[in-house]
Amino acid sequence: MVISGLYIQVKEEMMEEVAKQLAALPGVEVHGCFPPGKIIIVLESKNEDDAHEMVSQTIVNIPGVLGAYLAYCNFEELVS
């Protein structure tokens, strides 16, 4: 499992709508919205490829998103 903390820069006037769209994505938890246009999220994914795909193919393509910046990443092995 990969746990990533990200800072998402958005157009300030679209922050509320972007936060709703982010929260609806699987594995995404919105931790806060801060003016002007900063959203903090945690992303949980199965592996680093899934995390990269979620950010580079989905999150950055949400209308109003200006950029997604990795602040923290932790790799954990699942114990079966």
TrEMBL record:
Subcellular location(s) of the protein: Cytoplasm
Single GO biological process annotation from the record: negative regulation of protein transport
GO CC annotation terms, alphabetical: cytoplasm
Chaperone keyword on record: yes
Transmembrane segments: none
Alphabetical list of Pfam families matching this protein: NapD
Xref: Gene3D superfamilies: 3.30.70.920
Primary subcellular site in the record, as a coarse category: cytoplasm
Transmembrane helix recorded as keyword: no
Protein name, as recorded: Periplasmic nitrate reductase chaperone NapD
